[in-house]
Amino acid sequence: MQDPTYLILLALSDRPRHGYGILLEASELSRGTIRLGPGTLYGALERLEEAGHVELDREEIEEGRPRRYYRLTRRGRRVLVEETERREALVGLAKRRLAHR
User: Fold this and answer.
1) 92: domain CATH number?
2) pLDDT at residue 35 in the model
3) Among candidates 7, 20, 26, 27, which has minimal Cα distance to 84?
4) Which domain holds residue 62?
5) Closest by alpha carbon to 65, among 9, 29, 18, 12?
6) Are the C-beta atoms of 71 and 12 separated by less than 8 Å?
7) In whole angstroms, what is the distance from residue 18 CA to residue 35 CA?
8) What is the DSSP letter of 1?
9) Which residue from 23, 57, 2 is spatially nearest to 11, judged by alpha carbons?
10) How confident is residue 101, by pLDDT bands cut at 50, 70 and 90?
11) pLDDT at residue 5 greater than cutoff 80
12) Cα-atom radius of gyration of the chain, to the nearest Å?
């Protein structure tokens, strides 16, 4: 799983968010090292929705503009947990290897 996809899922792990909220949260989670653009975000959301990892939570009109809020599905949460465990295992391996050098 690519970092942008992981960050989108992670951004939705605590509550539903609209697109701009996902962009801000993903940037904060990555400490500013990964900045998603709207095209990347909405393409990824579409793929994640097709895969059953995220779904539309609600639509609201804010300042005359529609905002779509997305939420993580159970399947998406399971995928996020599995990916987090995979990443943790890689970090553990890297730490062990680096400690022996």
Assistant:
1) 1.10.10.10
2) 87
3) 7
4) 3-100
5) 18
6) yes
7) 16
8) -
9) 23
10) low
11) yes
12) 15
Provide the total of helices (H) and of strands (E) in the chain, helices listed first: 4, 3
pLDDT in tens, 25-43: 999 999 999 889 999 999 9
- How many domains in the chain? 1
Which stretches of 14-73 are DSSP H helices?
19-29, 38-50
Look at the block and give the residue holding tokens 């990964």: 34
CA atoms in the 13 A half-sphere facing the CB of 24: 5
Residue type at 4 in one-letter notation: P
Provide the angle, in degrees to the nearest 10, between the axes of the packed helices 3-11 and 74-99: 130
For 57-96, the pLDDT digits (tens) are 999 998 888 899 999 999 999 999 999 999 999 999 999 9
Would the pTM of this model clear 0.85, i.e. be above it?
Answer: yes
- Kindly provide the b/e burial profile for residues 14-31, where b requires at least 16 CB atoms within 10 angstroms of the residue's own CB: eebbbbebbbebbbebbe
Asked whether the beta carbons of 63 and 26 are under 8 A apart, the reply is no
